[in-house]
Amino acid sequence: MAGILVVALALLGTIVAPGIASPPTVTWEDDTVTATFDGVPVDEAVAALARATGVEVRGELHELRDIHATFERARFPEVLDRLVGEQNFTITYDAAGRPRRVELLGMPEVSEPPAWRGSPGGFGNVVTAYGEVSLPPVLADALGRQRAHLGWVLRRSARHQDPAVAAAVIALFVRTVDAEPGLHDAFLRTDDARVTRLLRIWFGPGTERFLGTLAEETHDALLRSKALRLEKQIRVGQPGADGPAT
């Protein structure tokens, strides 16, 4: 399946082969989801969730599999996260805080480029291995949990279309990199091109904003210097600043 998933939402789930799976049941009440998916194909499960909640879903599902799951008064992000697995997505909310649009992203899973895998101290490896962090209210509401692993938070929300969520992720990451010696040292040790590539994967067009915020708020002169240097390299389009890691 390619293109815009929402085009197929009216068709998915209307025909179920006998003996294969029970039709999904999804209800949306008081901004919570109650649902049963008994061997339902993931595209049909997402379509049923979209129909019940009125949320528009755009993008391509990358992993086609059957869903076996039951939810009782669960938050929308929690249900969607379970359905799409490791695929990245963003959720756009309306003024009342209700989900209105989902973008399924084609961004690669946040992991080290191949050249990094033998380097446990590389910045990406350290971020991936980092433990849980407490989430500020705007992130807790968007992600449906109070605490989460730092790498997971970046995958799920660093490119979020809600400016408040994107800003909250940047602020959280800046504080954590500045305060935690392991992240701090790995950021400084890893060469410019590799750090920039990872930041591009996580933050996309928000990479300059992250670097600018880090430069303004860090308490460490070396971090400030490196952040300003990378920000300048991106701004002037210096060769290698956005290229693949080697």
Please tell me about this protein's structure.
- By secondary structure, the protein is an alpha+beta fold.
- The chain has helices spanning 42-53, 76-84, 123-129, 137-143, 150-157, 163-179, 181-189, 192-203, 207-217, 221-236, and strands at residues 25-29, 32-41, 56-59, 66-74, 89-93, 99-104, 132-134, 147-149.
- It starts with 24 loop residues before the first strand and ends in a 10-residue tail after the last helix.
Helix content: 40-55%
Shape summary: elongated
Describe the strand arrangement of the main beta sheet, using strand numbers: 1-2-4
**How many angstroms separate the termini?**
33 Å
* Element string (H = helix, E = strand): EEHEEHEEHEHEHHHHHH
Given as residue ranges, the uncertain stretches (5+ residues, pLDDT < 50) are 1-20, 107-120, 239-246
Secondary structure tally: strands: 8
Count of helical segments? 10
Mean pLDDT: 79
Q: Into which percentage range does the β-strand content fall? A: 15-25%
